[in-house]
Predict the structure of Phosphatase PAP2 family protein.
Amino acid sequence: MLESLQSLDQTIFLALNALHTPYLDSFMYIFTGKLVWIPLYASILYVLCRNFNPRMAIFTAIMFALLILIADQTCSSILRPIFERPRPSRNPEIADIVHLVNGRRGGKFGFPSCHAANTFALACFTMLLFKNRAVTTFFMLWAIVTCYTRIYVGVHYPGDLLFGTAVGFAAGFITYGIYRFSLRVNGIASVLHYQENRALVKRPRNMTHTSVIIYTGLLTIACFAIYCIWWRTN
């Protein structure tokens, strides 16, 4: 059964990885990197600062950092050493036919995917925090595209991404649970002046400026897409 699943996983990976063009090589390489996240994180911090008092904004931002820490370290430090599944780019059976971008093969093991865990953890946490359909849809689509880039650049099987997605959702729910539990602790709530923002936490649909997150993400994608065109022509 396990061998059949691994064979199917490999077949799907090779089919998807084979769909490439010079332009997409440039775009996917940039989109799968870390710089693309900086404007998005900045926009989230902006929205927090516009809606919450300074202490609550900082505390919520810390929860975002905790979220990524849980998702990332669960995959990289706990699960990967247990499963030790080589990336497709490191699998001697198919390594020679895997399409790589800029020769990057990634680390030795790739199950589960940290990128999938991190992006879906963020999507899950923002879904619970903002309870805004547009924001949730945007982050879910962003996470899906991010996962596809990992197949495209040749460093993850679909199974790596599916399991990473599960880890991400678990991290999102756990972190949000910690967040809400902490706000119920009188000492913490008092320090954070939580009473000032209690209504927004309980009814987050009343938060303002959330569309900034979506516009920032779309503008970031557009800028990188244009940059890739310039990059390919110079």
About this structure: Residues 121 and 172 are 5 Å apart (CA to CA). The radius of gyration is 19 Å.
